[in-house]
């Protein structure tokens, strides 16, 4: 663990060091280039704002009304039949939609069942092995103005589903004994 | 499609609240979440400015093109539409690298730049083949060390907080392979449809 934390705290500063040393050796005006590139970031954040706000508000309406819970309890039987443990169903359903909600649920599951229980390990694995599909699509397509997104969402959701099944199978096998 | 999903979530939520008696919660969540979104976007500024600035320096110093050259054989197979020495390749690779090391914050700005470059290639507002492939690989997550999850596990006194690293990596690999495969299948289906 200590090695892992060391690597993750060292990697960013070392990357910065590498870039700046190489650029300086090449006699580039580093600071000016940095500022010029950074300006783009300001523009980008502002152009993202409406995309994020719209999506977050819409998800909040769905969650706060209780409709999302109803939807989860509606699809629970189907997922349980497919072998998904019922405790994990809400997490599986929300993972592609909302990153913060999923993280909250993972924390809740780890707290309730314990980090070293089957559910705790499964929730940890699922949280780490997929990403928030809807958020990524909103941000990446929103930022560059893609209006027709083709098969992106369908493919993303299918991959998420395979990821959930894979997590269950792998955790079951690895922690079997 | 995104229009239907977006409006659909809000419409279903509001109608459900009418019968469920949760309208007060909805109107509360409405403004709270809008606030949250602004905080999130403002919070993004620091990360975006810093990484885009640094990436510009890396690009000008020729580091991106070195990175591209090293990983070229693998990535060109994934993105056959992108010319070999196009800047998009460099950004795609930096995005993947950042993701693998769990630097989600650094990955987003590079991903957006990659998208921008890919849009220059396709020149339309429709998602191109390479954009979909890129997006799907991102949604399947490439993270090798799930730092947040490890932190939560430590907080709740896990005996072995990092024991899920191996299972996470396995699940990530399976998901990524699945994502790339599904993406290819959908692409082939689109090609067949266009021929007819």
UniProtKB/TrEMBL annotation, chain A:
Keyword rRNA-binding: no
Alphabetical UniProt keywords: Membrane, Transmembrane, Transmembrane helix
Domain Nucleoside transporter/FeoB GTPase Gate residues, every copy: 46-146
Gene Ontology terms: cellular component: plasma membrane
Protein name (database record): Spore maturation protein
Source species: Aquibacillus koreensis
Matching InterPro entries: Gate_dom, SpmB
Organism placement in taxonomy: Bacteria, Bacillati, Bacillota, Bacilli, Bacillales
Signal peptide: none
TM annotation in the entry: 7-25, 45-62, 157-176
Automatic annotation (TrEMBL), chain B:
One Pfam family cited in the UniProt record for this chain: Gate
Keyword Acyltransferase included in the entry's annotation: no
The keyword Chloroplast belongs to this UniProt entry's keyword annotation: no
InterPro entries: Gate_dom (IPR011642)
TM segment ranges: 6-23, 35-54, 132-152, 164-187
Domain Nucleoside transporter/FeoB GTPase Gate: from-to ranges: 43-151
Protein name, as recorded: Spore maturation protein
Organism expressing this protein natively: Aquibacillus koreensis
């Amino acid at each position: 663990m200590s090695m892992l934390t060391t690597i993750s705290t060292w990697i960013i500063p070392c990357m910065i060091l590498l870039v700046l040393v190489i650029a300086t050796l090449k006699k580039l005006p580093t600071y000016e280039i940095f500022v010029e590139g950074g300006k783009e970031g300001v523009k980008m954040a502002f152009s993202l704002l409406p995309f994020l706000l719209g999506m977050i508000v819409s998800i909040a309406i769905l969650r706060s009304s209780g409709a999302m819970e109803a939807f989860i309890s509606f699809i629970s039987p189907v997922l349980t039949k497919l072998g998904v443990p019922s405790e994990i169903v809400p997490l599986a359903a929300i993972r592609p939609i909302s990153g913060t909600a999923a993280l909250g649920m993972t924390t809740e599951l780890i707290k309730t069942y314990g980090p070293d229980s089957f559910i705790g390990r499964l929730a940890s694995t699922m949280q780490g092995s997929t990403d928030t599909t809807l958020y990524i699509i909103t941000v990446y397509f929103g930022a560059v103005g893609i209006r027709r997104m083709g098969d992106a969402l369908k493919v993303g959701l299918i991959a998420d589903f395979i990821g959930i099944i894979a997590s269950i199978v792998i955790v079951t096998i690895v922690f079997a004994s | 499609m995104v229009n239907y999903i977006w409006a659909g979530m809000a419409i279903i939520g509001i109608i459900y609240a009418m019968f469920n008696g949760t309208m007060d919660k909805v109107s509360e969540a409405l403004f709270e979440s809008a606030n949250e979104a602004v905080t999130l976007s403002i919070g993004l500024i620091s990360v975006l400015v810093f990484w885009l600035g640094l990436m510009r320096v890396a690009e000008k110093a020729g580091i991106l093109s070195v990175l591209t050259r090293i990983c070229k054989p693998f990535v060109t197979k994934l993105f056959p539409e992108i010319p070999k020495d196009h800047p998009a390749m460099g950004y795609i690779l930096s995005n993947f690298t950042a993701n693998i090391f769990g630097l989600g914050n650094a990955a987003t700005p590079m991903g957006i730049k990659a998208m921008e470059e890919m849009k220059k290639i396709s020149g339309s507002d429709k998602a191109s083949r390479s954009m979909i492939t890129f997006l799907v690989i991102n949604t399947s997550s490439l993270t090798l060390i799930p730092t947040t999850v490890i932190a939560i596990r430590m907080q709740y006194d896990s005996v072995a907080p990092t024991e899920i690293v191996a299972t996470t990596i396995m699940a990530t690999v399976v998901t990524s392979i699945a994502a790339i495969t599904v993406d290819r299948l959908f692409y082939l289906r689109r090609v067949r449809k266009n021929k007819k």
